[in-house]
Amino acid sequence: MNNLDTPLNLFLKQQGELPLLVNADTTLRGRLKLLRSLKALNSTAEGSEVHSVYRAQDLILVGDGVNLKYLNGTSLSSLFTGLSGEYISMTDVANWVYLGDGTNKKSIYISGPTACDWGHAVPSAAPTCVTGAGGANPNGTYLCYYRYKITLPDDSVIYTGLSPVDSVAPATQKIEWSGLVHASFTGATSVAIELFRTMTGWSAKYLVTELAEGTVAYSDNLTDGVVQANTPFAETDYYIDYASIIGRDRIYGIQFHPEKSQHNGLRILKNFINM
């Protein structure tokens, strides 16, 4: 409150119009605000010092620096614990809230709500690929990779970059994949692994198969033609590696903008149409 004109303040109080003036005097119009009584949302007082309060849609989040809670009816329920103790910065986009405290970064799917991690690193270890007994198809020297496919509560998907590479040289024999390390992702509905391989002369790394959570080995007897008809993987190296092209069957998505690349871009679009 910054009222420099006492008679004006007294007049308004006598009239019973407004109990509060903000930055108001006879030379500055200022802003008039009606005071309303506060309503308690939670029935039990919060024991810790509250650092952060945030509202996204109908979700009310309360942080005390170490814990993040949400208003569940008339009480506060925990979403995250073990935060850094610093103030929590939050923002919301569509049905998600993203938060950080300088050390941790988390996300919350508003419906539920569901506490989730925010992003995931690429696999840190290469797969182990060796020549197997039997089979009649893979033939040559292959480079083998895998990545994580993380499905979130709203059915959106996070695809990580590829793992370090292993190589194998079967002579019309199976490729036996093992040593696949699964990811842990809080809040995900599923965390799958996708296997990729390529060889000299191929235009991309191609999807071999998708493995359900918990599967750590695979026997690969696919022909080169079958593999090359699957989803290609292309990535761009710009500070970090990220996917620039994804596709399956006749559906493709690209990160770049061919329509802005003149003749070369038109050629790319024409090639897609003619596939």
Regions with pLDDT < 50 over 5+ consecutive residues?
1-5
Q: State the share of residues found in helices, binned by percent.
A: under 10%
Number of extended strands: 21
Distance between the termini: 69 Å
Q: What class, by secondary structure content?
A: mainly beta
Structurally, the number of domains stands at: 3
**Percent strand:** 35-45%
Q: What is the H/E string?
A: HEEEEEEEEEEEEEEEEEEHEEEH
Determine the number of helices (DSSP H or I, runs of at least 4 residues).
3
Provide an overview of this structure:
The structure is a single chain. This protein has 275 residues and is mainly β. The chain has three domains: 1-36, no CATH class; 52-117, Thrombin, subunit H, CATH 2.40.10; 128-230, no CATH class. The protein has helices at residues 6-15, 224-228, 262-273, and strands at residues 21-22, 31-32, 52-56, 59-63, 68-72, 75-80, 89-93, 96-100, 105-109, 114-117, 128-131, 142-151, 157-159, 166-168, 175-178, 190-198, 205-211, 218-220, 232-238, 240-248, 251-254. The strands form five sheets. Strands 12, 13, 14, 16, 17, 19, 20 and 21 form an eight-stranded antiparallel β-sheet that branches. The chain has a four-stranded antiparallel β-sheet with strand order 3-4-5-6, with no helix packed on it. Strands 7-8-9-10 form a four-stranded antiparallel β-sheet, with no helix packed on it. A hairpin with a 6-residue loop joins strand 16 and strand 17. The chain is elongated.
